[in-house]
């Protein structure tokens, strides 16, 4: 078996001998795609993405709910910037699912994804173990976060699974010299993510839980309001999380006049600007979240419309989830 | 009595079997069933074997049409297929989706003759159906084994590498042409399945995905490498490829940006671009939901806006997904519709309504952000405009509402900028399409070629293939292969 292809750290490809995989049984998905090329057997050949999207590490962050995957995907890792996302398909009959890149390591050739088990596709994704491969991984997609170098404080707000997505953006601001204040929230203490990862570069971490089990009792907006009242020099607020949370953050910052960026999670199919399923209304204009975003000016976004469009397939989603032998928690 | 020697009057064209309309609206299987061997041989015998065949000039990839038809008339399918593949990488596709009436068949001399006995016009030779027959029959007899043993698979030459971005008809043509000359061709495709519009756009009932897959497998067997999930301009940049030693890069990314009307209510749930609707159903196989995971809403009353082939595809798809009423909304009349006559005929046969001389002015919601109706302005035809078509003009005050729970927009596509924004060195025209040298397809960036819809704007499969063929020839000359 010649599956384990050595790979240089910079994400480029090593030529390797094709003979073995041609004769091996049970080709993993990527091999099938390349197909059998008899006269190339034994010759030097560029295998490209043949080993892409294998799960190197799987870590359950919240049992039954939230999982972190580290994937071997050097061609994605080499180009991934804060704010980018990927589209994946778990299996051959699967749907295309967008997930934000929570971290990328071009040296190791890996990307990190964090997901909440919400329906059939994320449930199936959660069934995969270390060493197994995704059927398809496509990216990095979307415009990267607009980051100007500078020292002014940037407040990064994350809610639920959005904390992981926010983490990559916050890291980008920290690397550009900004003082990063992370505001994270969840229902309870054991549902909080990435607090340690954020500590590595955050100037300050403000925590809010609904039940008061960690940090202040209340919502991320309560912590954010206190911070904005005490600090006048905030350059930008970035919010990633559930739609009501992003909407609440945008409404809160509006009277303060602080630039507010939100990362929208509309329904996507191709993720490359071909269909407009992900269209959102920003300042009265149609924008495609997959290529014009996913980040937009929170003060311009029509959140009501976004919420309605996100609910378009609720009956299908519920049906699919129930039929795959699981139930909504 | 001495018999006067006259040429026998050609027989009428051999009809092709079709699924009856009443049956086919209940499934996604192919509508046209193809010729049998006897039918194909009989139709092939109609060809007059012109000394200067006009049909070849009508074909954008210059297939040796009399050549392959002679073989078919003799029953030599392999020989016929070999001739087709000399110039066409996708004969099973072209035989199905080309508008032959304006190309090869439109030029066929038979079509310009009248039957002396009845005085009726004759029909041209069914070149498309014969091409399809040859490709399907050859494939059924295991094309790949045959192909790999043939000289058409030249041994790879060292160090000749060409990259194609996009895997639609133009790139597949470039790949087929160059790999037959021994060039290592790598195709970078953004979606998870190769074929471009052949897999996400044209529905199964017109072009089965298995047929497309077979022709792509034949290219793979010829040594073409296809990397799916690689987005040009995101995962891989044109400059990366030039730096990596590719001697030429062909850009064939199509015109995939859907156009919207920009009228109120366009974001209501139930309003789709045809691209989204067809991608869900074709690429995502949503017609087989829940066996496949991609869902699509099955509309009860569906309005399809537009009059081209994409509108016909969307309307016929909606019927097959169980819609009770499907209306095509078009601002001119049936005569001006850009769709192929055959497609309009099939759609009408299946029960699609035509709502002609209507222009949408708003989408009306039900108060819960769901589509409830389309507000339409009645039009009449005015004086011909610059394009020669009559300009539709609004009839003041004549506005009505067409109730519908789904609206599918098929009003054209534009240039998708994902790759182009990453490649500013490539010059674009004012519509955002790539400017190329007409003879060679070369862009303003040396070594980088382009063809298909990203150059011309939305056109046909065969025109994209013709552009691919021109670019491939130019690349081959540049590499010193011809």
Automatic annotation (TrEMBL), chain A:
InterPro entries: Dihydroorotate_DH_Fe-S-bd, FAD-bd_FR_type, FNR_nucleotide-bd, OxRdtase_FAD/NAD-bd, PyrK_electron_transfer, Riboflavin_synthase-like_b-brl
Annotated keywords: Oxidoreductase
Record EC number: 1.8.1.-
Xref: CDD domains: DHOD_e_trans_like1 (cd06219)
Domain of life: Bacteria
Entry's Gene Ontology molecular function annotations: oxidoreductase activity
Record bears the keyword Lipid biosynthesis: no
EC category: oxidoreductase
FAD-binding FR-type domain sequence ranges: 48-147
NCBIfam families cross-referenced by the UniProt entry: PRK06222.1 (NF004862)
PANTHER family: DIHYDROOROTATE DEHYDROGENASE B (NAD(+)), ELECTRON TRANSFER SUBUNIT (PTHR43513), DIHYDROOROTATE DEHYDROGENASE B (NAD(+)), ELECTRON TRANSFER SUBUNIT-RELATED (PTHR43513:SF3)
Protein name: Sulfide dehydrogenase (Flavoprotein) subunit SudB
Species the sequence originates in: Desulfocurvibacter africanus PCS
From TrEMBL, chain B:
GO molecular function, one term: iron-sulfur cluster binding
Cited Gene3D superfamilies: Alpha-helical ferredoxin (1.10.1060.10), FAD/NAD(P)-binding domain (3.50.50.60)
Record-annotated FAD/NAD(P)-binding domain positions: 161-468
Domain of life, source organism: Bacteria
Pfam families: Fer4_20 (PF14691), Pyr_redox_2 (PF07992)
InterPro entries linked: DPD_II (IPR028261), FAD/NAD-bd_sf (IPR036188), FAD/NAD-binding_dom (IPR023753), Helical_ferredxn (IPR009051), SudA-like (IPR006004)
Dihydroprymidine dehydrogenase domain sequence ranges: 25-141
Protein name: Glutamate synthase (NADPH), homotetrameric
Organism: Desulfocurvibacter africanus subsp. africanus str. Walvis Bay
